[in-house]
Design a protein that fits this description.
By secondary structure, this protein is α/β, with parallel strands linked by helices. It has eleven helices and twelve strands. The strands form four sheets. Strands 4-3-5-12-6 form a five-stranded mixed β-sheet, with helices on both faces.
């Protein structure tokens, strides 16, 4: 059972309202209802009952509240002790490209500062990462977005991350000094998976301007995309960080193309009520310094 369910239960019990508890915790009311239902299923008892227009604990709920308060206090004490010692776990929700090309040196920095700290990376899609931050399943989210998509969370822009069109050096477009959208008509694309936000952004621009295009390959991994671009006739759109090494080695070239609607920022996403350990606070400050 998740301790977060007991935190939610305590908040509902104190405020005698699912709505006010949801507001205090920063959750959707449906999330609060779901967590209470899971607790009732786990204990096989009813925890709340309607009393007129209000809400009150059942006798089983009153007993659980006494135990829950003790458990949560012990949990808070344990977190504070581990924070002072630099131990515990730091969970990071992020996307594959950031996990592979941005985070490794920063993870090494924080582990040098806190040798006993365990780091847990949870790669996922942007929307799922945001949901995990909202529900408290990860300590911090790192994603590429052009603007904050959930105003209830805390968003910190780390830096702009350039999106580049890449091709192999012998591609016909590589000989041009400037590429306009019309010159992309009919080219073969090697695309990221259809849920990828920068692919969605690219396709929206192409469709808006009536640029016909064909997808030769669709791949879910930046490394696979780069390999196929290097040996094939297709072009692709990737965050620059994902292709930087190949660009520096001359294995790939950046095509001279830019569009104002094809851009992303590296954002850090945090729940506004997130408890901050010393390690998490220091990690956040490290990332801010990378801008």
């Amino acid at each position: 059972m998740e301790l977060i369910y007991l935190q939610t239960f305590r908040e509902v019990a104190v405020r005698q309202s699912f709505t006010r508890a949801a507001e205090e915790l920063g959750y959707a009311q449906s999330s609060v209802t779901m967590q209470i239902q899971k607790l009732e299923k786990a204990y096989e008892v009813k925890l709340f009952e309607r009393f007129g227009r209000g809400l009150r604990l059942t006798s089983a709920g009153e007993e659980l509240l006494k135990i829950a308060v003790q458990m949560l206090d012990l949990y808070q004490e344990s977190k504070e002790k581990l924070a002072k010692q630099g131990g515990g776990t730091l969970s990071i929700g992020t996307i594959d490209s950031l996990a592979s090309y941005f985070l490794p040196p920063w993870i090494q920095h924080i582990r040098q500062q806190y040798p006993d700290l365990a780091i847990r990376l949870q790669p996922d899609r942007e929307a799922l990462i945001i949901n995990k931050v909202r529900e408290g399943e990860v300590d911090i989210g790192l994603i590429l977005e052009n603007k904050p998509s959930d105003p209830t969370l805390g968003w910190i822009k780390i830096k702009e991350e350039p999106l580049v069109l890449i091709a192999n050096p012998n591609h016909p477009l590589a000989a041009l000094s400037n590429i306009q959208l019309e010159q992309l008509i009919g080219v073969e694309w090697i695309m990221a998976e259809d849920s990828c936000n920068y692919r969605i952004m690219l396709e929206k621009v192409l469709r808006t301007h009536g640029i016909s295009y064909r997808i030769g390959l669709e791949l879910g991994n930046p490394e696979a995309i780069k390999r196929c671009v290097r040996v094939g006739s297709g072009i692709s759109l990737l965050p620059r960080m994902a292709a930087e090494e190949e660009i520096q080695r001359g294995e790939l070239v950046v095509l001279p193309f830019a569009h104002p609607d094809i851009r992303l920022d590296l954002h850090m996403v945090i729940h506004p009520k997130k408890w901050m350990s010393h390690a998490l606070s220091d990690f956040i400050e490290m990332l801010k310094s990378s801008s």
